[in-house]
Amino acid sequence: MENNLPLSKYTVLDLTIARAGPTAARVLADWGANVIQINPPNKPGQKGGSVTGKRDGFDFQNLQRNKRGLTLDLKNPEGHALFLKMASKADVILENFRADVKHRLKIDYDTIKKTNKEIIYGSISGFGQEGPYKERPGLDQIIQGMSGLMSITGQPENGPMRVGIPINDLCAGMFLAQGVLLALLNRENTGKGQWVHTSLLESGIFMLDFQASRWLQNKQIAKQAGNNHPTGIPQGCFKTSDKLINVSAVGDRLFSRFCEAVDAQHLIENPKFFDDESRLANRDELNVIISKILIEHDSDHWINKLNKVGVPCGPVNDIAQMFGDEQVKELNMVRKVQHKRLGELDVVRQPLNFSDFAQPKQLEHPAPDLGQHTEEILIEFGIEEEVIKDLVKKEVI
Questions:
Q1: Through-space distance between the first and last CA atoms of the chain, rounded to whole angstroms
Q2: Which of 55, 344, 384, 385 is the most buried (most CB within 10 A)?
């Protein structure tokens, strides 16, 4: 498959594990980079699973697509030397070990840049490269708790609640990919590489956004608000006669439109609901009134009526309903990839659209089997076939 994507000239050595690092690598791979996933060879008795499941599972296949696979024992001196040779010709290295591991393996940025001053070295850790927690293992849910995210998620009466996706893993991965791209742009001007790193904790704090600013500037500790918006009223999830919908009528203009659309004009002049501050102070009472109105008709009735007057409103879908939605179908978010054992698989494409080039209608590579492309990759890096056979015998690859 011809690769005309914008990152096609870059080679990435992907040492990442779990989810955050592979998410960064997936961004680069989907936009055309030659991403080489490097794993240690399987040892006798190893089952080969991970926190993202088996290689043939839906999670692994989605996360690791568009990459090729190579096995290499970095703890073996010959394996280490081979990695340094590959690194001397690569553009990017990605890793998300604990902060100290890359130094123990002697594959850290300072080591690599001695042989490749142009290398972009991307790292994700749980808590950062320095500090009292730098050697701790970091997982998404642990960071959801430590970052404060769980404290503002869920219903107040039920206590803190995790978000339904590994949001800190995913955000850290996307932020690192962004950092790598910025470093590559900088290299175009300076000719120099650099180390770019983030952490689950830094990403989690950034994603608090206005809730963090609320504390920093006003010293207000945000509380759980369930399905209500924490500061904008009315905005939340309401029952209709057939299913749940979300409605946002925040601000005087939208609130007036909402009241007129649902034949509740009397609410506009009610002093309890006269402006944003009063609506916030009397949110529970207002939500009860709105609930009694919306339960009288089905979701389609309200979705059509409210959107017609410019009041944001939409259904609360499960994932199957989401993929069946006419707008989602129009966006064409699903891509095919052909796997030699599993057949044709569906995955979600990257959510960016460009006027001058399109994402391929079918992905080039499914997630690789362990070491599937070892020989062809090493040949591309100038390693002779006899040397490769010797490395296999020595279990270096």
A1: 27
A2: 55
Which among 26, 92, 54, 12 has a CA at the least distance from the CA of 335? 26
d(CA 223, CA 71): 48
**pLDDT tens digits for 124-144?**
999 999 999 999 999 999 999
Contacting residues for 385 by C-beta, under 8 A, at least 6 apart: 375, 379
Q: How far are the Cα atoms of 71, 92, 104, 106 from residue 365, in angstroms, in the given order?
A: 17, 19, 32, 30
> Is residue 327 a part of any domain in this protein?
no
- Whether 4 maps to a domain, the answer reads no
Provide φ and ψ at 70, rounded to 5°.
-135, 140
Residue 42 has pLDDT above 90, yes or no: no
Question: What does the alpha-carbon distance between residue 22 and residue 19 come to, in Å, rounded to a whole number?
Answer: 5
Question: Which structural domain range is residue 85 located in?
Answer: 11-207+333-393
Residue 220 lies in a domain: no
**pLDDT tens digits, 208-217:** 999 999 999 9
Q: What CATH number should be reported for the domain holding residue 353? A: 3.40.50.10540
Q: How many domains is the chain partitioned into structurally?
A: 2
